[in-house]
Amino acid sequence: MATYTPMMQQYLKIKAEYEDAFLFFRLGDFYEMFFEDAVNASQELEITLTSRDGGSSERIPMCGVPYHSAPNYIEQLIQKGYKVAICEQTEDPKQAKGVVRREVVQLITPGTVMEGKGVSEKENNFLVSVTVLEDGFGFAVADVTTGENSVTKTERFDEVLNEIYSLGAKEAVIESTMAEDFQKQMRDRCGVAVSYENEDSVEGEALSLLHPISSPDLKRSFARLFHYMIRTQKRSLEHLQEVQQYELSSFLKMDLYSKRNLELTETIRSTGKKGSLLWLLDETKTAMGGRLLKQWMDRPLIDRRKIEERLEMTEVLLQKFFEREDIREGLKEVYDLERLAGRVAYGNVNARDLIQLKKSLQRIPSLTELVKALEHPFAEKLAEKMDPCESLEELLEASLVEQPPISVKEGNMMKDGYNSQLDQYRDAGRNGKTWIAELEASERERTGIRSLKVGYNRVFGYYIEITRANLHLLPEGTYERKQTLTNAERFITPDLKEKEALILEAEDNMSQLEYELFLGLREQVREFIPRLQSLAKCISELDVLQCFAAVSDKRRYTRPVFSDGEMDITGGRHPVVEKVLQTQEYVPNDCRMGNEMERSILLITGPNMSGKSTYMRQVALTAILAQIGCFVPAEKAVLPVFDQIFTRIGAADDLISGQSTFMVEMLEARNAIVHATGKSLILFDEIGRGTSTYDGMALAQAMIEYIHNHIGAKTLFSTHYHELTVLDQALKSLSNVHVRAVERNGRVVFLHKIAEGPADKSYGIHVAELAELPAELIQRAQEILEKLEKQPKPSQENAPEPPAAVHDEEAQLSFFAEGNPRKKRKQDAGDHSLKSALLELNLLEMTPLEAMNKLFELQKKAR
Ligand SMILES: Nc1ncnc2c1ncn2[C@@H]1O[C@H](COP(=O)(O)OP(=O)(O)OP(=O)(O)O)[C@@H](O)[C@H]1O
Question: Which of 23, 409, 547, 732 lies 20 to 30 angstroms, CA to CA, from 670?
């Protein structure tokens, strides 16, 4: 250390405290990085790596960014999951004896970033903490941008992962001793940055925020998060709200796979919103409403009374079209009050933000009137809570001009009459300027030079300018010569300089005083933070409810009715597929399940691509929409209140955990089977297809039996195993339904219509033909199929007898007989090796993936 210069020693000392962050070390107009930070940052940010002498024998790697463009670079690093420590000069370099004092003023981390692209308008930026307890996990959540805080306790670690996933948290704060496996799962499965905080004492400010919480364990969990926020942000965070406790059991539970599978807030293929249920629903007009909508979607309710309250408001808003339209217009003008409150607490609002705040507050009285005009007790209750913060609005109206500049240091923010000292400075400035304006006129008169003018520049201040052509008209010695230009001379006079000094002093004083007045104003606004936050809650709630009404109206949704177990959906639709289908109409489908009809399991058969998954998802989405308080896409819907929804749909490969698709399938199935209750909804889409036919079929049947005999959850089970359709004889709550398809002119036509009973055949080969596999191959597959169908099926212990399915062979044959020119072209090719390769395949022992690979190989040969 001793060999480094004092400044490098200072750097190394500070860096030692922030080893896991990039240290942005302020040097004049730049933030510099050194050593490894410099090497890494130059790669991540694509900036030039240089070096400097630091006292030791070797040169020190260095790179830097100008301070004014730093936010952009910081954002890039944060988005990549890094942390950035901002180290500023905390004394005036002119006053410093020796090395300028420097301190880290803020540690920016993925979960504490306040602004920039990483903070999306309609999404919270949640930071969470996880504390291992004797009997579970303490889980705390905060959003530093809005000040929301909450805590809960979970029994199992997978619930912690679910919470992290559904909150979309970017960073998790934990004790450094937490088991490595837990840390790994958080990083790998949820993609969060993990940070450490061992301090969890409940005292001081943390204590006052924790007022509503009684459990010491939960208090500790939040305290850990709180200490981390204070340690990194290095300021008092007055906008943090009282901590709310929530119970996972008060909401409809869905694991992270189910949320992903159902594409609630993002689609499976990409993390974008487009195509998700949130994308369809989001007709909110404010950023706050957008965030609340996402929160409601992540946590559908199970308390019938609360659901009905939301539905009631949705209905009122839906019926009162004109009031709703006016409310929507009004909401458009309401600024993000929650984040504004956060920025007030952070000390980084400007006068323009406060003008926006004023304009938002001015909308509140009329919005409140509109809510009252809905004439409903619930609306009345909401209207009463809407606090217009009149005194704040009056204060802002009295203090700030309508169009202040962005900078708070250049003056021109405050209104005349707000402060008498400011008014005096302004008068002095204005008088000086009037005097100068008059000077121009009087000097023109006196000298007779019409083009004489008074000007100003930063270097010479005010001057009198006379063109060279007119110089002869000016008696020698009239003014003092100051500057010679090509075509003109510039002069000054003692009087002019005296006025100039007065004007400049007044302007300096004005800017300084305005800045101070602005800080004072900001302090006054700070007092209103809690009131603004509760107003924000009302506004966001109103916004989400109007959004439900608007979507329900536009898409012809109906109000669901809740039952004690029965489900009866008439004319149900998949909300997103219905919206995106362009060329064809969505075919509505019914779904009847329930205690009385003894249908708790529906076994769905039907060709590929016919709409089985869509149907299953549609039922789940209908239940979710109902339980968040929105109307549902159906003609009529009677629904139970579900406690949990489990799905196993599609190949949600968990590549990161290194598990095979089949293993993931089994883990998800286990999750449902272990945790589901009689009030749950289970969607199993072709369970068992990832293994060999017999294995898969046996597992599928065993699962159905288990659910039927031990759980009683409402279950939609789609399968390709037609053999399973006979299960309805043994299992009294199981019913067969199928998606209808017909053949027309040798082509399979999907009707997308659900009908009672099992499907009569699978059409798999027809779909393969639609996918344009070579005709010869298709024909061969058809022959094999026929052979297989004639073979007696191997018997299986306890397995159902193969169904007496009727196969319309004539129809199948006619499909290939005519009207298929490709068949004729290729028929003569007679590639025997291809044929024998096909014949050698033992289809019954192959997994679909193996079959697919083999087909691919054969297809290549056939070309
Ligand atoms: N009710 C419907 N009305 C109109 N089109 C529909 C309907 N249901 C599904 N579709 C269309 O059919 C396509 C296939 O649906 P889906 O993926 O649900 O089939 P599937 O039977 O689950 O297929 P696979 O067994 O191959 O997974 C959808 O993308 C959609 O465009």
Answer: 732
Pick the CATH number of 420-523 from 1.10.1420.10, 1.10.10.10, 2.170.150.40, 2.102.10.10: 1.10.1420.10
Q: Are 703 and 687 in contact (CB under 8 A)?
A: yes
- Rounded CA-CA distance 606/742 in Å is 11
Residue 697 among known ligand-binding residues: no
Cα 648 to averaged position of ligand 1 atoms, centre (Å): 16
Strand order in the sheet with 171-174: 193-196, 171-174, 127-133, 136-142, 149-154, 244-245
Find residue 311's DSSP bridge partners.
none
What's the predicted TM-score (pTM) here?
Answer: 0.80
Q: How is residue 157 written in tokens?
A: 């670690």
User: Does residue 208 have a known ligand-binding role?
Assistant: no
Return the ligand 1 atom nearest residue 584 CA.
4
Residue 221 assigned ligand-binding role: no
Residue 606 CA to ligand 1 center (angstroms) comes to: 11
CA separation for the pair 863, 854 (Å, rounded): 14
Ligand 1, CB cutoff 6 Å, lining residues: 577, 581, 586-587, 589, 608-614, 752
CA 580 to chain centre: 22
Burial (CB count <10 Å: 0-12, 13-18, 19+), residue 166: buried
User: What is the length of the chain?
Assistant: 863
559 CA → ligand 1 middle, Å: 26
Region 282-389+528-554: CATH code: 1.10.1420.10
**Cα–chain center distance at 468:** 67
State the distance from the centre of ligand 1 to the C-alpha of 773, rounded, in angstroms. 21
pLDDT in tens, 396-419: 999 999 999 988 888 889 999 999
Residue type, 58: E
Average pLDDT, the chain: 86
The annotation status of 297 as a binding-site residue, yes or no, is no
* Annotated binding-site residue? 613: yes
Q: Is 127-250 the same fold as 6-108?
A: no
- Closest residue to atom 25 of ligand 1, CA basis: 608
The beta strand positions in 76-187, using DSSP E, are 84-89, 102-108, 127-133, 136-142, 149-154, 171-174
Tokens of 709: 């005999």
Q: What is the ipTM of this complex?
A: 0.97
Distance between first and last Cα of the chain: 71
Q: 743-776 pLDDT, tens per residue?
A: 777 677 788 899 898 887 666 777 777 677 778 8
- Residue 610 CA to ligand 1 center (angstroms) comes to 5
Ligand 1 pocket: which of 269, 569, 587, 609 to mutate (most atoms within 8 A of CB):
609
